[in-house]
């Protein structure tokens, strides 16, 4: 179990909703969860409501910057998030009253956008250039 107060709270929420009954089915294992996941992805792809929801600007923005968010979230949690949460929890005595979450989330989006723009896109451009140089025919 994690050690930080916020992580413990999140762990308790997830543990309370986890279906342990799936683990004890003899000979089945995680197969029903796998089938349900595939069916859910198929359903979301076919349902007009979910297509419209996932085609809106904010999910598209998250999809564009998902690699930058993935790269930067642990760094921001360890460098800014945990110290900020400890300070706010000492001051307010409650994780629910911590208002730094919105600021940390905005900073994550901003930094991940920079990473996407200056690292991800530039590395894709470099890979395309290198591919063209490797596939170029000598005449």
Automatic annotation (TrEMBL):
It comes from the Eukaryota. Keywords: Membrane, Transmembrane, Transmembrane helix. The chain crosses the membrane at residues 27-46. This is Acyltransferase 3 domain-containing protein. It comes from Exophiala sideris.
């Amino acid at each position: 179990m994690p050690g930080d107060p916020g992580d413990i709270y999140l762990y308790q929420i997830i543990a309370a909703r986890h279906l342990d009954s799936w683990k004890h089915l003899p000979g089945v294992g995680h197969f029903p969860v796998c089938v349900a996941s595939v069916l859910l992805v198929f359903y979301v792809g076919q349902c007009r409501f979910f297509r419209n929801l996932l085609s809106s600007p904010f999910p598209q923005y998250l999809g564009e910057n998902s690699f930058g968010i993935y790269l930067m979230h642990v760094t921001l949690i360890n460098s800014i998030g945990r110290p900020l949460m400890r300070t706010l929890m000492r001051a307010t005595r409650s994780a629910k009253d911590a208002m730094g979450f919105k600021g940390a989330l905005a900073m994550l989006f901003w930094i991940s956008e920079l990473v996407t723009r200056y690292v991800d896109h530039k590395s894709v451009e470099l890979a395309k250039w290198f591919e063209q140089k490797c596939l170029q025919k000598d005449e």
